[in-house]
Amino acid sequence: MTEGIDQSELEARAARLVEAARKAGADACDAVAITGTSLAVEVREGKVEETDRAEGDDVTLRVFVGRRTASISSNTLDDIQGLAERAVAMARVTPEDPYAGLADADQLIRDIPRLDLLDPTPMTAARLADLAGEAEAAGLAVPGVSKSGGASASWRLAGVVLATSHGFTGAYMTSRHGLSMTAVAGEGTAMERDYDYDYRTFLEDMDAAVDIGRRAGERAVRRLNPRKLTTRTAAILYESRAARSLLGHFAGAINGAAIARGTSFLKDRMNQPVFAPGITVTDDPLKPRGPGTRPFDGEGTASQPLTLIEDGVLKHWFLDTASARELGLAPNGRAHRGGSGPVPGATNLTLEPGGRTPEEMMRELGQGLLVTDLIGHGVNGVTGDYSRGAAGFWFENGEPVQAVSEITIAGNLKDMFARLVPCSDLDARYSVACPSVLIEGLTIAGD
Question: Metalloprotease TldD/E N-terminal domain location, by residue (predicted)?
C-alpha cells in the first residue's frame, strides 16, 4: 500500500528547502523530509476500544554559516523562504563548533542499495481489529487469566528523503507492523500482568496472533504469588527480552558523542577486552528486513556492517561526522537524525549466541535467578554502576520453583560484561537482538 506517499514530491520538498537556505546565506545545508501514514486499533474484552489514523509530514532544515549551525523543523511548507531565513539567522548567533559541517563529499554513498524495506500488503482497520481480537481471545483462553489488559495492532508506512547542498539526494520507504497483548491473572491485590508482542517490517514474518496472546497469558499466570528474596549474591540468567537492555547499555557506552565528551565508562577501552573471549557483537544496517535496516545513514554516508566486539575485544565506536572529527577518526555511517541534527547510534545490533540453551545453563548452575522483567533506569553511563528493579523466578535443581518480585539487581557493567555468557536462544527480530545471558556473582537486594 504505497499510493499514499509520493517520493518525487518528497524529494522536491527537500530540494526546495536546500535551495532556499543557500539563497538565505547558508554556506552549506541539508534537509530531511519525512511523510508517514499510520493506523492503530486497540481491542479490549472483544470490542474495538479505539482506532487511530495519523498522516503527517515533517521537514528539518540544518544550515551552516561558517562553523556555526542551527536546525529548524516544521510540519508545513507554507513559507519555505521564511523558514530558511530564520534558520540562517539562528545559526549566525550560535557559538562556533569546530567539528560542525556536512559529511565530506568523498564519504557520501554513490550507489544506493535496494533493500527489502517495504511490505506492499494492504492494511485496514478491520484487519488490524481482527488480529488484535485473535491475540486477546487466545490470551483469555489460558487457564488462570482473569481479564484482558487489552490488545493492539498497528501499521505504519513512511517515506524518508535526505538532500544536501553538496549534491546528495537519497530516498527510501519503510513499513512496520506491530501486535501486542497484555493479560491479567489472579484477582484483587494478588493480580499479576504480563505481555507479549511482535514487531516486523513484513506482516508475513510476524508471529501468529494466537501465539502472541497465548504467550502473554502464560507469562501472566506464571507470575502469580510472587515472593521477595533475601539479600544475597547469585547467578542471574537474563531472559532474552530482559537481556536486550544490557546490549542497549553497551550501545550507549560506545556512542561516539559520549566518547568525545568523556562521559562513557568505556572511553579508554578501544582495542581492549570488554567482554569475555569468544564474544561477538555486530551491527548490520543492511540486515534483510531488519527494523534498523537502511540504505544510507542520516548524513548520506554508506552504512556497512561492523564487528564491534571481536573475540571479546572492542573494535569500533558508533560515529557520525561530528563525533568522528572530534575524535580524529573516520565516520562509519552510524548517524541518526534527531530533532537538532545527526547523532550516532546503532542500526541492527546483535549479540551473537553461545552454545548452550537457557535450560542447560540452569541445570548446570543448580540454583539462581531467572530475570524476566526489569524496572527503572538505574544505570550510570559515566561509571557503569548498575541498579535495576527486577522480577522473575528463583530456580533450584535447574527448574523455576518460585515467582519473585520487588528485588533489585546491582553491579557494575564493566564487570558484568566481562562475565557475561550468551545462551543459544538468539531472538533476532528486533533492532537490539540478544539471546538469554548468564552473569554470575551479582548482588540481589531484597528483604
Answer: 29-91
Co-location of 167 and 197 in the same domain? yes
Please give the grid coordinates belonging to residue 378. 538505574
Both 172 and 233 in one domain: the answer is no
Q: What is the pLDDT of residues 211-262, one digit of tens each?
A: 999 999 999 999 999 999 999 999 999 999 999 999 999 999 999 999 999 9
Q: What is the Cα–Cα distance from 226 to 389, expressed in whole angstroms?
A: 14
Same domain membership, residue 19 and residue 145: yes
pLDDT band for 75, please (50, 70, 90 cuts).
Answer: confident
H runs (alpha helix) in 307-409: 321-327, 358-365
Nearest to 287 by CA among 300, 301, 303: 303
Q: Is 10 exposed, middle or buried (0-12, 13-18, 19+ CB in 10 A)?
A: buried
Residues 349 and 206 grouped into a single domain: no
- Indicate the residue among 219, 238, 272 that finishes a domain: 219
| Same domain, residue pair 344 and 415 | yes
Number of structural domains (the chain) is 2
Cα(69)–Cα(342) distance, integer angstroms: 12
Residues 207 and 305 in one domain: no
Where helices occur in 28-112 by DSSP H, the ranges are 80-92
Q: What are phi and psi of 111, to 5 degrees?
A: -115, 105
Q: Which domain holds residue 240?
A: 226-447
Give the residues across from 437 on adjacent strands. Answer: 238, 422
Q: How many angstroms separate the Cα of 154 from the Cα of each of 74, 118, 128, 132?
A: 25, 15, 7, 9
Give yes or no for a contact between 133 and 43, defined as CB atoms under 8 angstroms apart: yes
- 1 within some domain: no
Query: Per the structure block, which three cell numbers stand in for 408?
Result: 533489585
Identify whether residues 167 and 307 lie together within a single domain: no
Query: Residue 434 and residue 426: Cα distance in Å, rounded?
Result: 5
Q: How far is CA 416 from the centre of its chain?
A: 21
What is the reported pTM? 0.94
8 Å CB contact between 241 and 216: no
Closest CA to 410 of 438, 390, 391: 390
- End-to-end, the C-alpha distance of the chain in Å comes to 55
